[in-house]
Amino acid sequence: MSLTSTDIQRLAQLSRLRFDAPTSERLQQQLNDFFAVVEQMRSVDTRGVVPMAHPIDAMPNLGEHVASAAHGMHLRLREDLASEPNQRDINQRSAPAVERGLFLVPKVIE
Fold this sequence. Notes:
110 residues; alpha+beta
């Protein structure tokens, strides 16, 4: 599948967007590159590959190195550690209302 400049204009119209000519050409190239990757993936023979809703579905338990006995898959999970310092107080300074560390917002639904 390859998009033309007319297709890009139609997509822009449907999206209620306006693009100048250089942006439209760049968008056309980027979309065509994307569709080329999709076509490449569609050409891969996936017969015999069991579909999964999520890779973790195949895992019997969650450990540091998780393996599925059924598929021989390995999933390496990193430890869930904070990588940034807690800056809640600094981040909430500009908030109009805060209570017990939570942002307070006006009620919008009765």
